[in-house]
């Protein structure tokens, strides 16, 4: 199985598991993939870090968790924050770093926006003192 972090054209990210990279490519080509948040069929692979174990002892535990009531409450709160932001802010997609910098520099009026940025763009914004926050990723509740 292959795990991909996927993103729609509205910058919603989610996880996808496929039998092979060919399986992902086939499903993408046939338009079988859709965003669980907004239903968009414009899906692409997000940034991913490889996870390679050199021995059985070093293999990751799988990243699974069974939430207690307190943690489930925190998850619901994070989902509410994410829903509030995506409902009331403008999605600027891959232009996030550019727009955030323009607001920081006073070139355009400050407003609520969200989008996607590369690791290098995020680092540069932080170094320049641009205030922003990561949008919480909430895995599908059926997982």
What is this structure's SSE topology?
Blueprint: E1 2-8, E2 13-18, H1 21-29, E3 43-45, H2 69-88, E4 90-93, H3 96-104, E5 113-115, H4 119-127
Parallel strand pairs: 4-5
Antiparallel strand pairs: 1-2, 1-3
Strand share of the residues?
A: 15-25%
Gyration radius from CA atoms, angstroms: 17 Å
Helix content: 25-40%
Report low-confidence residues grouped into runs of 5 or more.
49-54
Distance between the termini: 16 Å
Order of strands in the sheet with most strands? 2-1-3
Beta strands, count: 5
In sequence order, what are the helices and strands, one letter per element?
A: EEHEHEHEH
Written account of the structure:
With 143 residues, the protein is of the alpha+beta class. The chain folds into 2 domains: 2-49, no CATH class; 69-127, no CATH class. It has helices at residues 21-29, 69-88, 96-104, 119-127; strands spanning 2-8, 13-18, 43-45, 90-93, 113-115. Helix 3 (96-104) links the parallel strand 4 (90-93) and strand 5.
List keywords for this structure.
16% strand; two-stranded parallel ribbon; globular; alpha+beta; 143 residues
Briefly, what is this?
This protein has four helices and five strands.
């Amino acid at each position: 199985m292959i795990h991909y972090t996927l993103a729609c054209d509205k910058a919603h990210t989610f996880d996808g598991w496929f039998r092979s990279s060919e399986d992902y490519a086939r499903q993408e080509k046939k338009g079988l993939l859709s965003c669980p948040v907004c239903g968009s069929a414009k899906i692409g692979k997000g940034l991913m870090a490889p996870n390679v174990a050199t021995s059985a002892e070093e293999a990751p535990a799988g990243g699974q968790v069974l939430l207690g009531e307190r943690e489930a409450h925190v998850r619901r709160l994070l989902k509410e924050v994410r829903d509030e932001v995506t409902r009331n802010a403008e999605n600027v997609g891959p232009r996030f770093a550019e727009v955030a910098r323009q607001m920081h520099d006073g070139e355009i009026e400050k407003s609520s926006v969200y989008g996607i940025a590369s690791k290098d763009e995020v680092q540069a914004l932080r170094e320049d003192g641009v205030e922003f926050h990561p949008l919480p990723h909430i895995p599908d509740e059926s997982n």
